[in-house]
Design brief:
mainly alpha; Four Helix Bundle (Hemerythrin (Met), subunit A); 2 domains
Length: about 150
């Protein structure tokens, strides 16, 4: 009985140790990306095979774009809250609600234009093939209803 318990415990310890080793090996690349200076961008360097110089240029563009993006997000959030406040105060369409909807649409359009400018600028810092693939990737995720429009020239 004692020998069986020892064998069972040894098997459990080996199974847990084996699982830990497999987990560590399987997640090594993800952990390395996460521990980098800019984990939100390192995947871009890996996926599009960018040199360190190309990656640094893109990192600079990203750093310059972030404050603009954050400011736009704040403006959109404030406008969304204003619209919600108007909607909570009535049960019918009013000129104020129509104006708030129009302003929301204008802000979202401005946001999309700014994002596209940024994406185009990033793509131009990459080698031509990588930039083209990047724009296709962006289009697929950010503008799924416009498939085919960005690459048609």
């Amino acid at each position: 009985m004692k020998k069986g318990l020892i064998i069972l415990l040894a098997g459990l310890v080996l199974a847990v140790a084996g699982d830990a080793v497999v987990y560590r090996l399987g997640t090594r690349s993800a952990r390395q990306l996460e521990s980098s200076e800019q984990p939100e961008l390192v995947w871009l360097q890996v996926e599009f095979h960018l040199s360190n110089a190309e990656f640094q240029r893109i990192s600079s563009l990203h750093a310059a774009y972030l404050p603009q993006c954050a400011a736009m997000c704040q403006r959109i959030a404030a406008q969304t809250q204003a619209l919600k406040t108007l909607l909570a105060a009535t049960n019918q369409m009013t000129p104020e609600i129509e104006a708030a909807i129009a302003e929301s649409a204008r802000l979202r359009g401005e946001c999309q234009r700014n994002m596209l400018r940024h994406f185009f600028e990033v793509s131009r810092t990459m080698p031509a093939d990588a930039g083209k693939r990047y724009l296709a990737w962006v289009q697929e995720r950010e503008f799924p209803d416009t498939m085919g429009m960005m690459g048609d020239k």
